[in-house]
Amino acid sequence: MGTMNTSVVLLPTYNERDNIERIIPAILAAAPVDIMVIDDNSPDGTGKLAQAIADREPRVSVVHRSEKRGLGRAYLDGMQRALDAGYERIVEMDADFSHPPPVLAELLAASLDADLVLGSRNIPGGGTQNWPLHRRLLSRGGSIYARTILGVPVRDMTGGFKVFHRRVLEAIDLPSIASNGYAFQIEMTYRALQKGFTVKEVPFVFVERESGVSKMSRGVFVEAVFMCPRLRLGKA
Questions:
Q1: What contacts 173, CB < 8 A, 6 or more positions away?
Q2: Looking at domain 7-232, what is its CATH homologous superfamily?
C-alpha cells in the first residue's frame, strides 16, 4: 500500500469481477486516496483480479479473506487494518458503482469540518435511481424506523457511503460491534453520535448496480429491525 495518502477507501467484494477493473481506476481518478480491497474469497476470481491490479498500482492493496462472513465483518477487518496502517480518514464504499466515485471528493471535502460524513439519499439533492418502488419504500422506511427508535436526527441511517475520521473508529470500540448488514450501518452511525461526534450528510443519488447481483437479503432487514431497540436500550 502506498503511504502518500492519508485517506483509504475500503472496498469489500464478493463476486464483483464485472466491476472491479472499472471501479478501482474510477476511484483513484476521483480523489487522492488509497484503496483496500477486502475480498471474501470470491468464486468468480475477483480477488485474483484485484491482486493483479494491486501488483502494478501502489495505491491499491488486497485483503484475501478465507470465506464470506458478511459486509459488516469485512468493513471491521478493513477498518482495523486502516487504523493500524495510520490512515486518518477511512471511507466505506460499494464496488458496484452504486456509490458514484465523483461524489467521493465531496464527502472528503465535507469531512474537513465533521467527524463522520454520510452520503445521504434522504436529504434534498439525494435519491435513488433505477430502484423498484418496494425497495425505495423499504430503504426509506428503514431509515425512518431507525431514526425514530434511536431518537437521532440523521436522515439516512442505512446508507453505506461514509467517511470516518480515525478518532471516531478508535472511540467506537470496533470489536464490540455486533451487527453485520443494514444494522451495521445503523450501529456505526449511532455509536458515533453517542460518543458526541459531529455527523454531516451530503446528498448523492444511489444508482442501482448494472453488473453483478445485489447482496441484500430478508435476513439483513430482520437484523436491523431487532438491532435498533437493543441499541437504544444499551444492550447491543
A1: none
A2: Spore Coat Polysaccharide Biosynthesis Protein SpsA; Chain A (3.90.550.10)
**Would you tell me the crossing angle of helices 133-150 and 218-232 to the nearest 10 degrees?**
10
Domain layout of the chain by residue ranges = 7-232
User: What are residue 155's DSSP bridge partners?
Assistant: none
Q: Where are the beta strands (DSSP E) in the chain?
A: 7-13, 34-39, 60-64, 89-92, 116-120, 127-129, 162-165, 199-203, 205-207
- Cell numbers 437521532 correspond to 152
Q: Phi, psi (5° rounding) for residue 89? A: -125, 130
Distance CA(116)–CA(170), nearest Å, equals: 13
Q: What is the pLDDT of residues 26-39, one digit of tens each?
A: 999 999 999 999 99
Cα 21 from chain centroid (whole Å): 19
Tens-place pLDDT, residues 16-26: 999 999 999 99
Find, among 51, 53, 32, the residue nearest to 42 by Cα. Answer: 51
